[in-house]
Design goal:
Blueprint (H helix, E strand, L loop, with lengths): L2 H16 L2 H14 L5 E4 L10 H9 L3 E8 L2 E6 L4 E2 L5 E2 L10 E4 L3 E3 L4 E2 L5 H8 L4 E5 L5 E2 L13 E4 L2 E3 L12
Parallel strand pairs: 1-2, 1-6, 6-9, 7-10, 9-11
Antiparallel strand pairs: 2-3, 4-5, 7-8, 11-12
Helix pairs in contact: 2-3
Length: about 180
């Protein structure tokens, strides 16, 4: 078992232990306040113990924002307009149709994040590939404060988050042009 596998197990358990409707509500409010100027959002559909996004999506739609959610096609993650959801890849609900769109803000799930903006996900690389394809999107993680790690391993293709919204506030990593994973 490698380091990332052990870290995924550890932070998955920490996230599950931190799951709280009150925290989810605080995170949703912070997103709505902080990114109110954005017109379009790419929002994951929460599963397992991820920070809930259902009410956040409803509020964004009610505010007249364009909301897209992930749909996997072959090996690519697309940002498609929110609509009726059906069981998709990995059991994650997704719309059946829709064209890939660019969005102002991308809200990403994660298992852990560190002070440099490195994100530990599930290991598929979908968000890093999406970020590489859509460099203009604001990269925002949604997490509980317990998911902050001292330092996470990263690869040259990992693209750091620009901020992480937690129940304790918005964490802005110390980003620099020489991100730890870039060589």
């Amino acid at each position: 078992m490698n380091d990332k596998c052990l870290l995924r197990q550890r932070y998955s358990a920490l996230r599950a232990a931190s799951k709280c409707a009150e925290y989810d509500e605080t995170i949703a409010k912070l997103v709505l306040e902080t990114y109110a100027e954005a017109e379009s959002f790419f929002v994951y559909v929460a599963v397992r113990s991820e920070v809930a996004t259902d009410r956040l999506i409803s509020r964004l739609l009610a505010a007249g924002k364009q909301v897209c959610v992930p749909r996997l096609e072959e090996k690519n993650m697309l940002a498609v307009p929110y609509g009726t959801l059906y069981p998709g890849a990995y059991g994650i609900p997704a719309p059946v149709g829709g064209t890939d769109m660019a969005c102002d803000v991308t809200l990403t799930p994660l298992l852990a994040f560190d002070r440099s903006g490195t994100r530990l996900g599930y290991g598929g690389g979908y968000y890093d590939a999406y970020f590489a394809r859509r460099p203009q999107t604001k990269r925002v993680g949604l997490a509980y404060s317990a998911q902050l790690a001292d330092k996470l391993p990263c690869e040259p293709w990992d693209i750091p988050l620009q901020s992480v919204v937690t129940e304790k506030g918005i964490f802005v990593p110390a980003l620099d042009t020489d991100h730890a994973c870039r060589v």
